[in-house]
Amino acid sequence: MADRADLTGPKDSRIDEPYTAYAYLGSEAGLSTIALSPEFDRVPPLQDELTDQERTRAQRLLDESLVISFHDHPVRFPLNMGETPEHYRAGRQYTAYAGLAASGMNIVFDNMMDGTACVTGRAPWRWDDVIADLGHRLADLAHQDRVVAIRSIADIDRVYLSGQVGIVFGLEGAMPIENEIDRLDILFGLGIRQLGIAYSDANALGCGLNETTDGGLTSFGRRAVRRMNQLGLAIDVSHSSDRTALDACEHSERPVFITHAGARSVWNTPRMKPDDVLRAVAATGGVIGMSAAPHTTISTSHPRHSIESVMDHLLYCIDLVGIDHVAFGPDTLYGDHVEMHKVFGPLLGIGQRGQAPPYEPVPYVDGLENPTENFTNISRWLVKHGFSDDDSRAVLGGNIYRALKMVWPN
């Protein structure tokens, strides 16, 4: 069994003066006046049945472990999700600084606007829009010191010891590079550290999970995988087709990741990954992050999507590939995620191929609804279900940290 390279010990609990996104601009900048969703108490908290002793242990684990979300959107969406396209015309997402400070997370992989980055038009994934999105977020981060951008393993170590929160910027799909491989170097130079091969639809690198004909990784895609290995850019196949994911694992010399998905054997939809893909990712040394985006990681045992459904996927993957290859990528945000899927579903190709088994629609995923509450509830669930301290630390972030050390520059 591989060593679990996790950081432990007391964290600095300092709290800086409150900062809200783009406060450095003042009132004269003409920022959007659209009302944003709150960072706290949008939905009722999860009701659990922990004893005082279990609750104390869960909090200790959260406080002392290196906690990494492999995929979230830690930003405030409009209160009325239908206003999001108008809101994004300004090219700015609003980091949820207060929510992150209360989350217990040390590191969060933030995939920005992704395919919703229609800053200058109505078509997603354009290069200029992605660069504008990244630039605005970095400019805002530069004006406070509680949340910082992560570019290396050394950055993770510093953030953990300082008590700050680190954001790893990434993209769920490589469409913006088009057929220009050197754009991978540019993205890396600008701070991107994780990149998906394809987001649902096919692109120059390979097929997404929406395609009915799966051609796998293209010749250009194989060259791109090679370049990402050379750069130290983490490869994500969460939204790639099955064949593309398998090809990426075959051609990569470094670990490959599924940052946010689940097991198709638990819930039979194209968005979930079949056993051969899960095994292939683990065989590279990679890690599988459990998603909690509404109506994705459901299970037949828990057809009403909740933390229990998500944990059915976790337990299955542990049995299949071992506990050293699983983690959490909840894919949550601050706002109505169910409504967001309705607003952007046609643009992102959500649910265009395949029929899901019968399930009970939910207004939100109980227990894993936003980045502030996720890991508190995850830690409590692990304690309640008998996970050891070592195994809990592994899935809370230690596994991701170990694998990133084989990919990123130190």
Overview of this structure, please?
The chain has helices at residues 52-64, 84-88, 97-101, 127-141, 153-162, 182-189, 219-231, 242-251, 275-283, 307-321, 337-348, 374-384, 389-404; strands at residues 68-76, 94-95, 107-110, 147-149, 165-171, 194-196, 234-236, 256-261, 288-290, 326-328, 333-334. The protein has 410 residues and is of the alpha/beta class. It has one domain (67-404): TIM Barrel. Strands 1, 2, 3, 4, 5, 6, 7, 8, 9, 10 and 11 form an 11-stranded mixed β-sheet that branches. Helix 1 (52-64) crosses helix 12 and helix 8 (242-251) runs parallel beside helix 9 (275-283). The radius of gyration is 19 Å and the shape is globular.
Assign the CATH architecture.
Alpha-Beta Barrel
Q: Tell me the major beta sheet.
A: 11 strands, mixed
- Indicate the multimeric state: single chain
Strand content range? 5-15%
- Tell me the series of helices and strands, N- to C-terminal: HEHEHEHEHEHEHEHEHEHEEHHH
Helix content: 25-40%
Radius of gyration: 19 Å
Number of strands: 11
